[in-house]
Amino acid sequence: MTDVADGDHRLGSGKTGEFGVVAFTGRTTVHALLSEMGRQSDAPISITFLPLDAHGVAAAAEAIARADVAVVDGSIDRAEAIAVCQALREARASLPISAVFCCPHSATAADLRGLLAAGAEGLLDLQLSPADTLHVLRGVARGQGAFHLQMAAGSSTSLAQLLAKRDGADQLSEHDLGLLRLVAAGLTDHEIGQQLYLSHHTIKHRIDRLRQRVHARNRVQLAAWAASHEALGAARNGSLGIGDRTAAER
């Protein structure tokens, strides 16, 4: 039994025992899997599908408030998926989040670090059956970390390594380095947001998080740290930051 809503439709009945899912995706494969998951379940499930857009999180406040778990598509736009996770954390910090990938080997270590840092507690690809997907999402909703995916070819990073707690630069993702490069260049939150297609509120939140991670007292110290850091220099010499990659993909 399932109640599926799209766009601005709200979760349906709100009955006791109903499992609520709010899914941020534009892929028909993700939509189809979650819909089939709902149809196969004997227990009541309510699913709301929303676009992968961090700006739409605030408008979905009711659905987010009623949901037991959020599903964020990590395959379309990695930077936007991270921004959606961060917006969900701001809207409802206690809501468990699971990121999904459309196919095996599509997730890189940098992608997963970025999603984990943004609050994702589950990572899975669409190779699971609808029943297994529901089982995993219920586990995530109960606070259990779930990792059911295959890493991108050539990756030597294990999930255990991804989950290991590290300090400072060792914990920075490729997305973080891209943002730090823009901070070091002296851009304002608004200017960075324009380049990364994110709101200046999201940029401010991400910069504050980075500042705390590298123990910088203020933005000036963060910019100085970023400009002098060896990893940032490596990014300048060849790696695309999130702003460059987002622009290139578009």
Describe the structure.
The chain has helices spanning 28-40, 61-66, 78-91, 109-117, 130-141, 159-163, 174-184, 189-196, 200-213, 219-228, 230-236, 242-249, and strands spanning 2-6, 19-24, 45-50, 69-73, 97-101, 122-125, 146-148. It has a 7-stranded parallel sheet, sandwiched between helices. The chain is of the alpha/beta class. Strand 2 (19-24), helix 1 (28-40) and strand 3 (45-50) form a beta-alpha-beta unit. It is built from 12 helices and 7 strands.
Helix/strand-derived category reads alpha/beta
Helix content: 40-55%
Report the mean per-residue pLDDT as an integer: 75
Report the sheet-strand fraction.
5-15%
Number of DSSP strand runs: 7
Oligomer class: single chain
What count of helical segments does DSSP give?
12
User: Element order, helices and strands?
Assistant: EEHEHEHEHEHEHHHHHHH
Distance between the termini: 39 Å
User: What's the gyration radius in Å?
Assistant: 18 Å
Tell me the overall shape. Answer: elongated
Q: What summary fits the major beta sheet? A: 7 strands, parallel
Spans of at least 5 consecutive residues with low confidence: 7-15, 154-168, 230-250
Cross-sheet strand order for the largest sheet: 1-3-2-4-5-6-7
